[in-house]
């Protein structure tokens, strides 16, 4: 007998748990995750969450900053919802028990973040994501939602154009199971591990995006990959934007605060794509320090660092042996966030009936070509809540359908073939190869020649995926099998990123082409849609929704 739920949420980070909490208690909600919920990658978010909660601030100002940050590729109807509803969601989180840092008057404190015209980033020291994940997990337990922890979803069940549930692998015992649902919400996070080095955890392989893509849902704007300006060299460990928000400086080998050249007004608090490109340029032109630039917090003083940035202090000492109270931290741009994802409307609904998505795996498009720091956490809360609400409404109007068992049988055969293969390729090595191709050919600066060469390399790797073989053929906690299944997600998404980037002949937000250095609103003010086909991604386009904020020049 298949397991059944009214609403099934795939992913247990902030977006997934917020969606689950939004489902009314009279409905049967399930949450499935390949790790325990408090190990979801949302815990790694450090700096904060944006909302215009001060009387002197406004959602209109937040909206303008977000549209500008997106390089005018964000859909303004979705951005307006995000910015209008953000203050109410912050208050709701506080009522749940969120322990936001406070200012001297006892109000929720807010710090500066890049690209914002007002300090509107609420935070919990430099562990904001960690605090919010544990907060929502408490709510999930209180709600008595059924949590399938350490289960891996291998396929959506789509019958007659309607999503009816998932097929999932119980990692503990190796059994494949059909889990039926009237509505399914994908909230599986980003795809940072498509690249070799990333701020993302090892679990961030873009599985939810790949599930939707294989089921026929287009992926939107996949060429827009965010590089965070401050990560630790070689490890990719994130050093929060909050470090610059609290007053940290960036300087090069000559001791120059080089952002003065690139963003004279906003300096270190320009948008992430601008700061990352500036750092890259400094390093490229020989003004770096062993392939890095330096982040200086010394002038903030020990008391402020230990109060506002204690985790950064600890990470810097642990991983690069530098005490930020005494010396600057070596940092470099690193892959951090996916602006693109599963195409949804403003309620989280995808083009497939019964299938919804929210958070980083979705593209509603509030981030467009570049995300502002602090907006991602807010998106998980606002659109997680909206997707959960709409999925519940849909489930209440939907009757369960009998199972054919067809998808379950297909998945048993597919996974059985991998387990039974005696000789072949190793998933880990293939993953490294794909990650290196993406890093080398689809990084911060992209040229036609480099991208075409990268596409050729990906095409050579693709058929090798069908020859993956495992050392471990056991059932209990076969993580090598999970790696092998994840590699298919990684390849699907790598191809979508590559295809979309190679044809977009402009520079906009995080997509920067020296051969096409200007933004081209005449030809490229449009969203890229990647549809799966036997020959690889098939591209189409759709217009950007512009409502309140007219096109303008983007300067910091």
The helix fraction, in percent, is: 25-40%
Question: Uncertain runs with pLDDT below 50, 5 residues or more?
Answer: none
Tell me the name of the CATH homologous superfamily of the largest domain.
FAD/NAD(P)-binding domain
Counted up, domains total: 3
Look at the structure and give the mean pLDDT.
Answer: 96
The biggest beta sheet is recorded as: 7 strands, mixed
Strand content is 15-25%
Rounded radius of gyration (Å): 22 Å
- Named at the architecture level, the CATH assignment of the largest domain is 3-Layer(bba) Sandwich
Put simply, the count of helices is 16
- How far is the N terminus from the C terminus? 59 Å
**Number of E strands:** 19
* Broad shape: globular
CATH topology label of the largest domain: FAD/NAD(P)-binding domain
| CATH hierarchy class name of the largest domain | Alpha Beta
- What structural class is derived from the secondary structure elements? alpha/beta
Membrane topology: Peripheral membrane protein
GO molecular function, one term: succinate dehydrogenase (quinone) activity
InterPro entries: FAD-dep_OxRdtase_2_FAD-bd, FAD/NAD-bd_sf, FRD_SDH_FAD_BS, Fum_R/Succ_DH_flav-like_C_sf, Fum_Rdtase/Succ_DH_flav-like_C, SdhA/FrdA/AprA, Succ_DH/fumarate_Rdtase_cat_sf, Succ_Dhase_FrdA_Gneg
Main location: membrane
């Amino acid at each position: 007998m298949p397991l059944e739920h009214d609403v099934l949420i795939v992913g247990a980070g902030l977006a997934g748990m917020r969606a689950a909490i939004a489902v009314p208690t009279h409905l049967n909600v399930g949450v499935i995750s390949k790790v325990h919920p408090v190990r979801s990658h949302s815990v790694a978010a450090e700096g904060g969450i944006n909302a215009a909660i001060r009387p002197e601030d406004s959602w209109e100002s937040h909206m303008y900053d977000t549209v500008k940050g997106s390089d005018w590729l964000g859909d303004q109807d979705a951005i307006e919802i995000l910015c209008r509803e953000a203050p109410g969601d912050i208050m709701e989180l506080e009522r749940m028990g969120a322990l936001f840092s406070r200012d001297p008057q006892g109000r929720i404190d807010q710090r500066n973040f890049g690209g914002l015209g007002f300090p509107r980033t609420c935070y919990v020291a430099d562990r904001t994501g960690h605090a919010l994940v544990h907060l929502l997990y408490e709510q999930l337990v209180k709600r008595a939602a059924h949590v399938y922890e350490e289960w891996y979803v291998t396929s959506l069940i789509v019958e007659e154009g309607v999503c009816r549930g998932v097929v999932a692998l119980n990692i503990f015992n190796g059994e494949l199971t059909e889990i039926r649902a009237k509505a399914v919400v994908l909230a599986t996070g980003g795809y940072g591990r498509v690249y070799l080095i990333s701020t993302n955890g090892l679990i961030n392989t873009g599985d939810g995006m790949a599930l939707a893509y294989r089921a026929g849902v287009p992926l939107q704007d996949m060429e827009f990959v965010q590089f965070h300006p401050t990560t630790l060299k070689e490890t990719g460990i994130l050093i929060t934007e909050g470090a610059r928000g609290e007053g940290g400086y960036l300087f090069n080998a000559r001791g120059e605060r080089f952002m003065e050249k690139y963003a004279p007004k906003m300096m270190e608090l320009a948008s992430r794509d601008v700061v990352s490109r500036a750092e890259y340029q400094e390093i490229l032109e020989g003004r770096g320090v062993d392939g890095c630039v330096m982040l200086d917090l010394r002038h903030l003083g020990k008391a402020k660092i230990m109060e506002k940035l204690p985790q950064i202090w600890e990470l810097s000492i642990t991983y690069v042996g530098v005490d930020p109270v005494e010396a600057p931290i070596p940092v470099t741009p690193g892959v951090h966030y996916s602006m693109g994802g599963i195409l949804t409307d403003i309620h989280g609904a995808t083009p497939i009936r019964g299938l919804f998505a929210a958070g980083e795996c979705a593209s509603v498009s509030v981030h467009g070509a570049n995300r502002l720091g602090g907006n991602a956490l807010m998106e998980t809360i606002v659109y997680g809540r909206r997707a959960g609400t709409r999925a519940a409404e849909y489930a209440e109007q939907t009757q369960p359908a009998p199972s054919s068992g067809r998808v379950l049988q297909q998945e048993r055969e597919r996974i059985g073939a991998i387990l039974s293969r005696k000789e072949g390729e190793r998933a880990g090595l293939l993953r490294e190869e794909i990650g290196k191709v993406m890093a080398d050919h689809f990084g911060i600066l992209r040229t036609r020649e480099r991208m075409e060469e990268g596409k050729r390399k990906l095409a050579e790797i693709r058929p090798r995926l069908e020859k993956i073989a495992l050392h471990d053929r056991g059932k209990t906690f076969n993580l090598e099998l999970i790696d092998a299944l994840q590699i298919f997600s990684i390849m699907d998404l790598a191809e979508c990123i590559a295809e979309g980037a190679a044809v977009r002949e402009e520079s906009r937000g995080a997509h920067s082409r020296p051969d096409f250095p200007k933004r081209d609103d005449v030809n490229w003010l449009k969203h890229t849609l990647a549809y799966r086909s036997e020959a690889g991604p098939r591209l189409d386009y759709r217009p950007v929704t512009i409502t309140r904020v007219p096109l303008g020049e983007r300067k910091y």
